[in-house]
Amino acid sequence: MSDIQPDTKDWTWVLTRACPDCGFDPATVHPTAVAGHIRRDAADWVGRLSQQGVRSRPAPGVWSNLEYGCHIRDVHRIFDHRVQLMLSQTDPQFPNWDQDATAVDDDYGAQDPLVVAAELRDAADTVADRYDSVPADSWERRGLRSNGSEFTVATIAVYHLHDIVHHAWDVS
Question: Which residues are in the DinB-like domain (predicted)?
């Protein structure tokens, strides 16, 4: 994992304009539609994780499909926790998450692809169910990252969706 460069960019700009790489446009997404997108993306990942060569990196410094699958699984878990906090607390501050350290510490490349596929599907279903159950009057509840970035349940749903769309583009 040491040849992977940490991603230190602040991606919150994807909430206000289209991503020039993957084409994701936040203006075309309603937060209540995010759950369906997450479920469809999870089904695609189950397929990707069953393919031959899932552990192979396509180029130096680029994650394998297995490593991306582990990351997507963990993204779903992190966002589910953050949405839970937003729905149960007033203006919670999210715990920091170092995705690059997690990839190394959890040895993404050595994990079992079939186990990861099942865990990714479960995590996607859990967070999709969470988005589906957001009361209409709770989409504007707030949460904060430690760097001060402010999200609402609605904007974090869209931000979450960009993350998985972008990674699907990364592996395509």
Answer: 39-168
pLDDT for the residue 1 = 45
- Tokens 């190394």 -> residue: 104
> Residues 138, 25, 121, 171: what is their CA dihedral angle, to the nearest 10 degrees?
-160
* HEC letters along the chain: CCCCCCCCCCHHHHHCCCCCCCCCCHHHCCHHHHHHHHHHHHHHHHHHCCCCCCCCCCCCCCCCHHHHHHHHHHHHHHHHHHHHHHHHCCCCECCCCCHHHHHHHCCHHHCCHHHHHHHHHHHHHHHHHHHHCCCHHHCCCEEECCCCCEEEHHHHHHHHHHHHHHHHHHHC
What local confidence, expressed as pLDDT, does residue 87 receive?
98
Q: What is the pLDDT of residue 12?
A: 86
Instruction: Give the Cα separation of 137 and 143 in Å (integer).
Output: 15
